[in-house]
Amino acid sequence: MTNKRCKVWNYFTLVNINEAKCTKCVKIVKFLGTTSGLCYHVKNVHNFTLNEDTNQQKCEG
């Protein structure tokens, strides 16, 4: 199962073990154990910035 500590999960729902659905555009984005692809989608498609929070890990990507 995925670890949902990264803020990027605020923008996605888990579809299956390797795919998540963007809640903004409903695009299915594949990921392989890291959230880099999800972070890339949020930053480059939707132009959102993911800031570090004390309870969640900063997204790297």
Automatic annotation (TrEMBL):
Coiled coil: none annotated. InterPro entries: Znf_BED (IPR003656), Znf_C2H2_sf (IPR036236). GO terms for molecular function: DNA binding; zinc ion binding. It comes from the Eukaryota. Keywords: Metal-binding, Zinc, Zinc-finger. PROSITE patterns: ZF_BED. Residues 3-53 form the BED-type domain. This is BED-type domain-containing protein.
